[in-house]
Specification:
alpha+beta; Jelly Rolls; Arc Repressor Mutant, subunit A; 4-stranded antiparallel beta sheet
């Protein structure tokens, strides 16, 4: 899960992102970073906050394909010569994000030093996390998918706390992330609250015990 990514980013010296160069921008809660179909010539590194990626096909509702936090890259498909954005990226909360030009990243990867090896490892980890999320959507129940989503969102907060308050999201947004209906989200959230997995006093506070909802997964 994301906690491992936070640790990795500090080990590799990317916590500040300064070694990556590029420009740093601030985004508001729910602000678009880029939209599916736009030209793709840059990738991004999250220094603070979180991002969700969603993909729309034909006239179907958008499906959330990833929930990202501090230390994650996104938009990296441009490195594989994809000319257009394959998804829409939206800030989950107030976020600080570094924009890196494709040519600059390729130059860094070609140096074959400690930094380039670490960068490549983290980019591959990002791809693995994406594949894991897709597999989760295909094999888990809707309730388990909601638990995964809440735990990912909780990892956007500070480590070392018994409970982490996540960004305020409507049942509609959570339903889009999970791939189910708003009414089912409401049922699952009430069930988690009654079991003590989450607290709902103003915001939503996620407790580590929520992992029990994942069963043997």
């Amino acid at each position: 899960m994301k906690r491992a990514n936070h640790k990795a980013s500090h080990l590799w010296g990317f916590s500040s992102g300064e070694c990556l160069g590029g420009e740093v921008s601030s985004y508001r809660d729910k602000q678009n970073i880029y939209t599916q179909g736009e030209p793709a010539s840059t990738l991004f590194y999250i220094q603070k906050g979180g991002v969700r990626l969603s993909t729309r096909r034909n006239n179907r509702p958008a499906a959330v394909t990833a929930i990202l936090g501090v230390g994650d890259f996104f938009g990296e498909l441009c490195l594989a010569n994809y000319p257009l954005r394959m998804c829409t990226a939206v800030a989950l909360t107030a976020s600080t994000i570094r924009t890196i030009k494709k040519a600059k990243m390729i130059q860094m990867l070609r140096k074959k030093n400690k930094t380039s090896v670490s960068l490549l490892a983290q980019l591959l980890s990002s791809i693995k996390n994406y594949r894991d999320h897709v597999a989760d959507l295909l094999t888990s129940s809707a309730e388990q998918r909601l638990a995964h989503v809440l735990l990912r969102l909780a990892h956007l907060g500070k480590n070392g706390r018994t409970g982490v308050e996540i960004p305020v999201l409507s049942d509609k947004v959570l339903a889009e992330m999970v791939g189910t209906t708003r009414s089912r989200i409401n049922v699952f959230m009430n069930r988690f609250r009654k079991r003590g997995f989450i607290s709902c006093a103003g915001g939503i506070e996620v407790h580590p015990s929520l992992r029990k909802a994942l069963g043997t997964r």
